[in-house]
Design a protein that fits this description.
55% helix; alpha+beta; single chain; 210 residues; 4-stranded mixed beta sheet; 2 domains; Glutathione S-transferase Yfyf (Class Pi), Chain A, domain 2; binds glutathione; Glutaredoxin
């Protein structure tokens, strides 16, 4: 299976951490993509196999012998169900919905991260500081909500915890540590899970430039 990646993307990172947590990295060929900083507002050049693989032209994209999955949600779902025996997200029932509830908040943070990043890559005269402020507020509000969930976190580093940890890591990397002030218990939890080999091996780095 071919997985299109970059080291900067939190969506890619949640997939890569999932793969490492399940110990199935030898099942994948990781294909590095390169991005011009113009991606935020323009169609940019890409390698032909990437364009052919996904009409969405976003990462992550997973190409299997049978089909292509074009977002991290379906990829994590596939990996967890088909290759992971539902170890990181239950197939059904209350435990599944609890994990999805926390994961949806973490995904909202990551969506805000990427929207904010795209806005910051615009030229100064195009950029909306109001929009950037709106994304920042959403991130901090969601971190405050996850703070209340920390006592209920289970022992398994499941798909929700993976996504939350990736959201914490990206926030610190791009936007600083203000979130730690609104979510101190979450920050303490993050400092522990950040030591996991899967997190260490996937620390964010700048996207290779096209
Ligand atoms: N909902 C998608 C979002 C994927 C996404 O936005 N990826 C970004 C990189 S972090 C991307 O490829 N952006 C390029 C573009 O929008 O042109 C997922 O879960 O995978």
């Amino acid at each position: 299976m071919r997985l299109y990646v970059t080291p900067a993307s939190p969506w890619v990172r949640r997939v890569r951490v999932t793969i490492l947590e399940l110990g199935i990295e030898d099942r994948f060929e990781f294909v590095q993509t390169k991005w011009s900083h113009k991606w935020a507002t323009r169609a940019v050049e890409h390698r032909p196999d990437f364009l052919e693989a996904t009409p969405v032209v976003r990462i992550p994209a997973l190409v299997t012998a049978a089909f292509t999955l074009t977002d991290s949600h379906s990829i994590c779902d596939y990996i967890n169900g088909e290759l992971g025996g539902f170890r990181l997200l239950a197939q059904e029932g209350a435990p599944r919905w609890r994990v999805l509830a926390d994961m949806s908040v973490a995904c909202a943070i990551i969506e805000a991260h990427i929207s904010r990043r795209a806005e910051l890559l615009r030229s100064e005269h195009e950029r909306s500081n109001d929009f950037i402020g709106k994304m920042r507020d959403r991130e901090l509000r969601c971190f405050a909500t996850l703070e209340k969930r920390v006592p209920q976190f289970g022992a398994t580093f499941d798909l929700a915890q993976i996504t939350i940890a990736v959201a914490c890591g990206y926030e610190s990397w791009r936007y600083g540590n203000e979130w730690r002030g609104v979510a101190p218990k979450l920050a303490a939890w993050y400092d522990v899970v950040a030591q996991r080999p899967s997190m260490g091996a996937t620390e964010p780095a700048e996207t290779p430039q096209a």
